[in-house]
Amino acid sequence: MRAIATQLSGRRGESLVFHDIGFTLARGEALVITGPNGAGKSTLLRVLAGLLAAETGSFRLKDDDGADLAVADHTHYLGHRNAMKRELRVSENLAFWQSFQAGDNGGGLTVEAAIEAVELKGVGHLPFGYLSAGQQRRIALARLLVSARPLWLLDEPTAALDKRSDQLFADLVRGHLAGGGMAIAATHQPLGLDNVQRLELDGAHRSLEAGLEAFA
Amino acid sequence: MRAIATQLSGRRGESLVFHDIGFTLARGEALVITGPNGAGKSTLLRVLAGLLAAETGSFRLKDDDGADLAVADHTHYLGHRNAMKRELRVSENLAFWQSFQAGDNGGGLTVEAAIEAVELKGVGHLPFGYLSAGQQRRIALARLLVSARPLWLLDEPTAALDKRSDQLFADLVRGHLAGGGMAIAATHQPLGLDNVQRLELDGAHRSLEAGLEAFA
Amino acid sequence: MMALLKRDLAIATRSGGAAMLGVLFFLAVVAVIPFGIGPDLNLLSRIGPAILWIGALLASLLGLDRLFQADREDGSLDMLSMQDWFGLVLTVFVKSCAHWLATGLPLVLAAPLLGLLMNMSGLSTGAVMLTLLVGTPAISFIGAVGAAVAVALPRGGLLVSILILPLAIPILIFGVSASYAAVTDPDPFWPPFMILSAIALFFAALGPVAAAAALRGASD
Amino acid sequence: MMALLKRDLAIATRSGGAAMLGVLFFLAVVAVIPFGIGPDLNLLSRIGPAILWIGALLASLLGLDRLFQADREDGSLDMLSMQDWFGLVLTVFVKSCAHWLATGLPLVLAAPLLGLLMNMSGLSTGAVMLTLLVGTPAISFIGAVGAAVAVALPRGGLLVSILILPLAIPILIFGVSASYAAVTDPDPFWPPFMILSAIALFFAALGPVAAAAALRGASD
Amino acid sequence: MSDTTISQGWFTSLANPTRFLALSGRILPYLAAAAVLSLAIGLYMSFAAPEDYQQGVTVRIMFIHVPAAWLAMMCYSVMAISSIGTLVWRHPLADVSAKTAAPIGAAFTFLSLLTGSLWGRPMWGTWWVWDARLTSVFVLFLMYLGLMALHRAMDDPVRAARPAAVLTLVGFINIPIIKFSVDWWNTLHQPASVIRLDGPTIHPSMLYPLLVMAIAYTLIFFTLHLMAMRNEIWRRRVQTMRRQAAQAIGRGA
Amino acid sequence: MMSHETFVFLSYAATALTLGGLLAMIVLDGRARRRELGELEAQGVRRRSDAVRDSA
Ligand code: HEM
Ligand SMILES: Nc1ncnc2c1ncn2[C@@H]1O[C@H](COP(=O)(O)OP(=O)(O)OP(=O)(O)O)[C@@H](O)[C@H]1O
Ligand SMILES: Nc1ncnc2c1ncn2[C@@H]1O[C@H](COP(=O)(O)OP(=O)(O)OP(=O)(O)O)[C@@H](O)[C@H]1O
Ligand SMILES: [Mg+2]
Ligand SMILES: [Mg+2]
Q: Does E57 map to a domain?
């Protein structure tokens, strides 16, 4: 399986926040996106996830025979927000995402195992809103574990995590990569991963060219 | 002016997440609170801000003559959330907080100056929701500048900030301290401040004792 | 998708009875109308079905504006939109169903009680229940379009209602006329009821598709 | 505090065409009524006041549950609660006023137009305007209590709106009956209107204090 | 992509707002002149037309009432077609067209309601009845206002375009439905005092002024619509430039 | 009771007023937009398409 981006550019308002991005990830590889605030890291991840339309270029997921796979069905997206309901219990939240995002191969940990994997054993019965900021983020990470999908798109995954959890996160990603997964992460912190591709967005936005941008 | 905490303990659910906390801050001093996720850093800050009732102990702000000051009126609290409306423009948001939290002495930067101070000149007319995560956090920091209050309570102030902005933040706090202010920050990242008091919460929660907690 | 239904229902009930709120509002509507009509029981029972229908239509608006907004604010909407077209349409469908179960169904169940208050005959009450059972889901489905269109708005409440009410008029017309037809002799019950059913089916198909299209366009 | 009023109004109007939105909402509500009960002008003019009042209640319910919740979700509520008691009460009062200005006032102003559409007499329209002017702020004030308690519940929710609705129904009933009393001869207008005013005053005083107390207790 | 979109073909060249501005700038004077001319002729003809033996002088209201009602519906059709353009071809001008047509359509609908009322008072003895046709026009008016509110509520035109287009199309389906349901609705409840108007057999002396007025109204609509579209393009252009300027400052400093 | 002529006059007047008002709004809006464009251009902000055309 490979993830291939070609000549991607993405738009916010009237300018291209990144352009001509291209990379190829194979199984077991990770890409780390860095850059100053407002450089377009989150925008790029949303384009990769299919949540925003790319202005130009394409992002494709190909299986080992070279056939196209639907990106949305094989990708976990973890954004700035945790996608959990405050009023539901942690286990209810995770169980919901497990059955909603069930991978084709049905892989993935059980809810209890995932909670344990992020070292929060025992919080399953608490409403999500009762957790501390870092605990909430770790539960959001646990969502990636309850259903197996090969590509992880992570937007500042370690926000609010303590030192120990940073380590935990690095281990989780390493495990995912070792299992043949791929990961793309945008971050300001060192993620503790070794052997990764790097992509630096410089934040020099380019205005849209004539013709492309109708009203400029 | 001094900030004095004596024998503070704070409760979440059925357990004390911290107890017997005491410290004294004088003008120009800062306190950095560290500890693992769920240790009770945010809880402590909320107790200090008066948003949660302390289980025992007290937190007082005394002016230079030793008279008590109202904590709420002399304190800026910056929580995990930014307290800005996505749909209002950045400048509208800041102008609102400026007039709502006007300090007694009327000090504080103008809205434009504050936006410039966090190096986001030119975004004032954009809706807050259009900013990137780090830009949003920087605008939240700018709120502390538009009205002058001596004590800053900061909960993970550098979340989502890039390297350069970390530096910027450290400069802002240094400026605040140099001007006779005080700051208490909970964080997982080094804040780049020197000469600060440190408080480490260990995360070993204590169940409430009999008598104190009826049902324990 | 069953999981989504379960989750939305859990939130609706967990947060303290959206159902109750609708029914209470319904009750309030039915309670004040007699003031205007006066004690004329005859008239009251005659316009009863119309009052129940109007009350149900307005009560369905409660909660509608938050159908997608809540999901957007906590980030869940991203995951819901990361599906193929069919999955997204199905998601909207399921969420509309959950909304109906939480607000529409209780209204249907409360109808007999209100029929009693309005001095309606058993037959008339039964007809209203039946038409409400068919019609209120249609309101939820078409309401989803309004909710999707207004997903990005800070306080969609009134705007969503404004956009939805004109679209709900056909449902109201045929719902009421079928209810009347059931009790007034020369008019046949089935033609308007069939039309109502047809509209309901049409909206059940159209609503989710249109709402999905709006959601796709609104993503930021 | 003026800043708060301005901000809340800005948010309310930002979501589409200023106060127009409230008027539009009532136009839409009034427009669907004849589709339900038929074009009988006589009947319409009789239930007119009730319709206007129901519209007002619905409009208040639609935006009320988010009165403090939106502030809680983005963290603003912390700053609002970090005030002394008086400041907090004032804050609630101001927010309720903003809510009324955005939803209640447009209705009062639109009442003559709607009265025309419903074929109501001038006297009747005037009476409705007067009762709405007195009654709708009371709904906003007592609604604030519900909104505040709802924010306190860890699971959020409407539960308390349900407790509030029974309190709002007396306002509705006295408002409607006073409006009718103004036009039907034997009934005197002033007694129900005085009761309505008394309730409104009571709620204007009680609402903000109770809501502030609930917010103080709610903070997590 | 950038090169192909601005290549030949009148349709694609219209896709470029700059060209649209140039072209519409050339057409507008002629269009406006035609509108004024036909309006003058129409007005003259409507006052030259004989009075109706039944309705007397009030029949002259017909010459402004009926075209307004027609335009109210036509304008919604223009919006619906534009919405298809937005959804299917993602044509940037389609959104501009849909957005700017709404206030004009609302104005014509308002006129139809107002002149209808002013006609109804002497003819029917009442300003307003909840007759099916009247009510459906009223609902149409509400839909226009709702769409305007929606457009105004979303400050980013790019993101408002698709949702608004979806809603416009869904609303379009509602119009025939309301029209059909008319019969059902009226037969059920005997209207208390609705006076059925047997339309006057239209005599050529009235038909011609009516037709000329209808043409004049249509020309007025297109003139105003074109002007409004140009304004909207300029408005977006100004927004774009403001933002770029701001970004340049934010970066350059 | 108003005479029938009054209704006719009112209708035509209202039509003239509404359409005239609409026209005035659109014309004024257009002037304002063009003035803004002029100001921006005077400030040296240029449209990107111009810049590209120039450099080409
Ligand atoms: C507010 C009140 C009124 C509204 C909203 C209204 C609306 C309309 C509409 C939408 C049409 C176009 C129908 C079509 O072509 O399918 C129309 C046509 C017409 N209206 Fe009215 N109308 C109103 C009052 C009146 C009154 C009071 C009269 C005369 C007494 C009148 C006489 C006519 C006539 C003669 C036509 C042309 C019918 C035809 O095309 O054959 N209208 N009106
Ligand atoms: N919803 C939005 N609407 C319009 N513009 C946006 C939106 N979100 C972001 N932008 C703009 O797009 C640019 C890139 O934002 P993005 O969120 O991708 O940055 P980022 O690299 O993730 O920054 P951060 O490190 O702060 O998270 C910024 O200039 C921002 O102002
Ligand atoms: N609203 C709440 N209701 C009940 N319990 C809570 C609530 N918020 C936090 N807790 C619990 O209180 C404890 C301390 O939480 P707190 O948010 O203070 O931690 P923290 O040190 O700020 O952690 P982090 O580094 O993750 O932000 C945790 O065990 C948490 O589960
Ligand atoms: Mg980001
Ligand atoms: Mg914390």
A: yes
